[in-house]
Specification:
The chain is of the alpha+beta class and 341 residues long. It has helices spanning 2-19, 49-71, 76-89, 133-143, 151-160, 174-186, 254-260, 262-273, 277-291, and strands spanning 32-40, 109-115, 120-127, 148-150, 201-206, 212-218, 239-241, 246-252, 296-302, 307-311, 315-322, 328-330. The protein has a single domain (32-188, 198-332), classed as (Glycosyl)asparaginase (Glutamine Phosphoribosylpyrophosphate, subunit 1, domain 1). The chain contains 9 helices and 12 strands. The protein has an 8-stranded mixed sheet with strand order 4-3-2-6-5-1-11-12. It has a 4-stranded antiparallel sheet with strand order 7-8-9-10. A hairpin with a 4-residue loop joins strand 7 (239-241) and strand 8 (246-252). It binds aspartic acid. Aspartic acid binds next to strand 8 and helix 7.
Length: 341
């Protein structure tokens, strides 16, 4: 009896399951792009309307330029390079022009870039005269056998590759010089409280070829020791991209981000523990880093085009866009509060 019924049952089950709607396949968007301009004590009550709109306009400008590349079928690497270059040239952010001074009164830039398709990467550290450090990181990735070049070696390499070299004074802004002079006079920032320090820039993107890319650029921590490298140029700490998981750019107290290997940790949690991007970021940014009082945040995109912008500070300058969707720009905690007059 039992044996006679089995084929019938099988037929019934097959028939029933054929009637079930197929699980909807997750179709990644044609492209996605997220950028950040640093995390920190960014609060509506500390901003004027003018500052608020300058930051929003600057983020929108960089986002639109990056999006235009992706929309026209360009690569994620080109999109993030363009967006970061625009933010480096903008004195509002702590990268390129407008970067913070170190304790010795110099400006030293760090930048890195990574391609998720082949895990190729490039970085420069403590460079003083390369106009756009992200372009130097990209040259290291694409035109050298190395991953990481620092100081004079990186500067010579960039010049040899035809990148624009500028006098270090080009990066100096009145605002940052004043901040430096004040700190020098009071020596109040020796312990690097996170405070007002924010403005590192970064971008992550997914292109129509399914390739992820990430990049980060910064002047580092205000009043840092000369020669100090933060997480931003360290592959796996401030920047990471892997087509099998996600692309990440971080911002925050770099010493902790290096020790936690933040960007790689996010990718590993997705790859080896099967976590979603959102869950992985929640764990790393809102629990692990918070336990050590390490302020900062991340932006990330996974291979399915899911976007994540997570920070444990009051705010993070950020913007994102996906194919066919409205762009988003945010500065403060969620939900955002309107700036008062
Ligand atoms: N992560 C950067 C550094 O430590 C600073 C920042 O993102 O604000 O150099």
């Amino acid at each position: 009896m039992k044996t006679a019924l089995t084929p019938l049952l099988v037929l019934l089950i097959v028939g029933l399951s054929a009637c079930q709607p197929k699980p909807t396949e997750v179709v990644p968007p044609a492209y996605a792009l997220v950028i950040h301009g640093g995390a920190g004590l960014i609060k509506a009550e500390n901003m004027t309307r003018e500052m608020d709109s300058s930051y929003r306009a600057s983020l929108s400008e960089a986002l639109s330029a990056g999006e235009a590349i992706l929309k026209n079928g360009g690569t994620s690497l080109d999109a993030i390079t363009t967006a970061i270059t625009i933010l480096e040239d903008n004195p509002l952010f702590n990268a390129g022009r407008g970067a913070v001074f170190n304790a010795q009164g110099f400006i030293e830039h760090d930048a890195s870039i990574m391609s998720g398709a082949d895990k190729d990467a490039g970085a420069v550290g403590a460079v003083r005269n390369i106009k756009n450090p992200i372009l130097a990181a990209r040259k290291v990735m694409e035109e050298s056998p190395h991953v990481f070049l620092v100081r004079e070696g990186a500067e010579q390499f960039a010049a040899l590759k035809g990148l624009q070299i500028v006098d270090p004074s080009w990066f100096m802004t009145h605002k940052q010089r004043e901040k430096y002079e004040q700190t020098k006079a009071t020596q109040l920032e020796r312990e690097f409280p996170l405070g007002e320090k924010h403005g590192t820039v970064g971008a992550v993107a997914l292109d129509k070829f399914g390739n992820l890319a990430a990049g980060t650029s910064t002047g580092g921590m205000h009043f840092k020791h000369s020669g100090r490298l933060g997480d931003s140029p360290v592959i796996g700490a401030g920047t990471y991209a892997d087509n099998e998981s996600c692309a990440v750019s971080a911002t925050g107290h770099g010493e902790y981000f290096i020790r936690f290997g933040v960007a790689h940790d996010l990718s590993s949690r997705m790859k080896y523990a099967g976590m979603s991007l959102e869950a992985a970021a929640e764990q790393v940014v809102m629990h692990d880093l918070v336990k050590l009082d390490a302020g900062g945040g991340i932006i990330a995109i996974d291979k399915a085009g899911n976007i994540c912008m997570k920070f444990n500070t009051a705010g993070m300058f950020r913007a994102s866009v996906k194919a066919g969707e409205e762009a988003y720009v945010g500065l403060y905690g969620v939900p955002e509060i309107e700036v008062e007059e």
